[in-house]
Amino acid sequence: KLVGGRVRGDGGVDIAEAATLRNALPGQITLAVSSELVRDLRDSQASAAVVPVGFPDVPLPLIEVDDVECAFSQIVAHFRPPRCLTIPASPSPSLPDSARVGPGTQIDPSARIGQDVVIGARCRIHAGVVVGDGTIIGDDTVLFPNVVLYENTRIGSRVLIHAGAVIGAYGFGYQTREGRHHLSAQLGHVEIGDDVEIGACTTIDRGTYDATVIGEGTKIDNHVMIGHNCSVGRHNLICSLAGIAGSCRTGDYVVLAGQAGLSDHIDLGDGARVAAKSGVMQDIPAGETFAGLPAMPEKEFWRMWVTVTRLPELRKKLKELEREVAALRGRLSENRDAA
């Protein structure tokens, strides 16, 4: 009833917990997302499993559903209801007269809200958050502890910004005059679209004159750095420790894997993908996958990698050939001397 699935086998088995396939014990329910896991499920200690429709028979009760991950999430939440960080109901936070806060929004007393700030309805502003002057925040947005929004930041609705993220810090731009580095203009701001999630300790720098933009639906992992004047498209996935230098542009549905890096002024087309630890030094066309340092088309990278893995073997063959050539030269020299 909880997940609306169809039971195959004994529906009366007692279940007290939920666990993943590798860790499941007797009395627990697990999941198998595809028929490729039949053998693993048969070897599991689990007492039941959530599986996709048409899953092969195994010797334990099954619940068939259309979406295994969604159904299993509901089951886990049933046994272990999620806990949310609480915000004290009182004392009321100190707000400047120029700030406007929508109905149902909760603000921790330790948060600092600047002048001319607008916060939408049903937002949650946790402990230690700093919201700079002139910032606008949409509805249903959550700022976890110690998030910092510099002045004039624009945040959409249903945005999650995790602990320690800094939005709108100065961009890393300097002009060298008379032997000294002088900070460039820092007159822009950051705009974040609806349904964006920003991971813990991620930093997004403001534009020099205009906005650094994060498109709607984009998900950014922990410890990501996005430089000034960047424009990140819609529904991007940017994994942990990725770094994007200033003035880069990404299309929609772009993926940057962990520790990927983009040089400045790089353009990535829609659906472009960058493999982990790759260093992008050139534009990537739409739909292409690049890998390596410097990054290159994926097929080219793997051809090169296969060659690199064969280098010890090739070196050994080269040494053998050098010995054979040396031996032949020796025999030729002996023949010339004999003649």
Summarize the structure.
With 339 residues, this protein is of the alpha/beta class.
What does this 3D model show about the protein?
It is a single chain. With 339 residues, the protein is an alpha/beta fold. It has three domains: 6-79, Udp-n-acetylmuramoylalanyl-d-glutamate--2,6- Diaminopimelate Ligase, Chain: A, domain 1; 100-299, UDP N-Acetylglucosamine Acyltransferase, domain 1; 309-338. 17% of the residues lie in helices and 27% in strands. It has four helices and 36 strands. The strands form six sheets. Strands 7-10-13-16-21-24-27-30-33-35-36 form an eleven-stranded mixed β-sheet. Strand 35 (289-291) and strand 36 (296-297) form a beta hairpin.
How do the strands and helices of this protein lay out in sequence?
Elements: E1 6-8, E2 17-18, E3 28-31, H1 38-43, E4 48-52, E5 62-65, H2 68-79, E6 100-101, E7 106-107, E8 112-113, E9 118-119, E10 124-125, E11 130-131, E12 136-137, E13 142-143, E14 148-149, E15 154-155, E16 160-161, E17 166-169, E18 174-177, E19 180-183, E20 189-192, E21 197-198, E22 203-205, E23 211-214, E24 219-220, E25 225-226, E26 231-232, E27 237-238, E28 243-244, E29 249-250, E30 255-256, E31 261-262, E32 267-268, E33 273-274, E34 279-280, E35 289-291, E36 296-297, H3 298-309, H4 311-338
Parallel strand pairs: 2-3, 3-4, 4-5, 6-9, 7-10, 8-11, 9-12, 10-13, 11-14, 12-15, 13-16, 14-17, 15-20, 16-21, 17-22, 20-23, 21-24, 22-25, 23-26, 24-27, 25-28, 27-30, 28-31, 29-32, 30-33, 31-34, 33-35
Antiparallel strand pairs: 1-5, 18-19, 35-36
